[in-house]
Amino acid sequence: MVPERGVVIARACLRDGSGGSPTAVAPDGSFAEEERRAVPAEWGTSHVVFVAVRQGQVWLRFFTEVGELPACGHGTVAALAVLAERSGLPEYRTTLHAGDRAFPGRAVRRPTGFEASFDPGPVTVRETTAPERDLVLPLFPACAGPAAVASVGRPRMLIPVATRADLAALTPDQDRLREACDRLGLLGCYLYTVPTPDGRAAARMFAPSIGVPEDIANANSTACLAAHLSHQGLTTLTVDMGDSLHSPASITATTETGPEGARVQVGGLATLSTR
């Protein structure tokens, strides 16, 4: 059993100082997978991130009640906030290891919490296939343009809708969506409004295949969207999420385009609490 001592709840990706996605942050140890998968339900969160610090570098493992994930954006924000608080430094920087990659992470102490950001890795974006469109898009009749599939480790479908009202009205059949995502190997579906000229948008992420019918905040999918839209000259994107779950969240992604394509920094504000 994962001991309660040392477990912290971080509310990741707050909007205007409130809301955010509650995420359990636990010291890593010799735990069985079923023990790790039990933590989110025990602590009332959708995800848990296990943290190990060795020789000044940080290793992260992410779990939902269904199993392990190779990456989790808001979990990374949560872990960085906890590490920054424990460091006592006004600005904390480290190298993070998750999945099969190492990448930089940073958290700055603010009056309202910790502003954390990280490099989610190269984003790949492609057009949807006919089977993907046939299985998924009928579940989202509000789709208002061509969808895409993007990945920072696991693929997810990016689906535009016209307005925030259309986004708020979404009620996808979770069983059919899970079946479609399982068949297609998708993490889930990220539906978003077309950003305003200043880069503000709203989104909802449905991922029943990993035990998360809807995510309060999904930083990696926001990074995927930022990369997808970078060809339009959009360099900063702020996405509002969580309103349908009564926990408003915001994620910010900045994009630079170079010879190897778009590179993204993504993150948000986090606060810490115990049970």
Account of the 3D structure:
The chain has 275 residues and is α+β, with helices and mostly antiparallel strands. It is 22% helix and 41% strand. The protein has helices at residues 33-43, 73-87, 130-136, 164-168, 174-184, 219-229, and strands at 8-12, 21-27, 48-54, 57-63, 68-69, 91-98, 101-110, 113-118, 124-127, 148-151, 155-161, 189-193, 200-207, 212-215, 236-241, 249-258, 261-273. It has an 8-stranded mixed β-barrel with strand order 1-2-3-4-6-7-8-17. A hairpin with a 2-residue loop joins β16 (249-258) and β17. It is globular and about 45 Å long. The model has no long low-confidence stretch (mean pLDDT 95).
Short description:
With 275 residues, this protein is of the alpha+beta class. It is built from six helices and 17 strands.
Beta strands, count: 17
**Alpha-carbon distance between the termini?**
17 Å
Task: Give me the number of helical elements.
Answer: 6
Average per-residue pLDDT, rounded, comes to 95
**Strand content range:** 35-45%
- Structural class call reads alpha+beta
Topology as a string of helices (H) and strands (E): EEHEEEHEEEEHEEHHEEEHEEE
The outline comes out as: globular
Question: Measured on Cα atoms, how large is the radius of gyration?
Answer: 18 Å
Strand order of the largest sheet: 1-2-3-4-6-7-8-17
Give a quick account of the main beta sheet: strands, pairing sense, barrel closure: 8 strands, mixed, barrel
Low-confidence stretches: none
Helix content: 10-25%
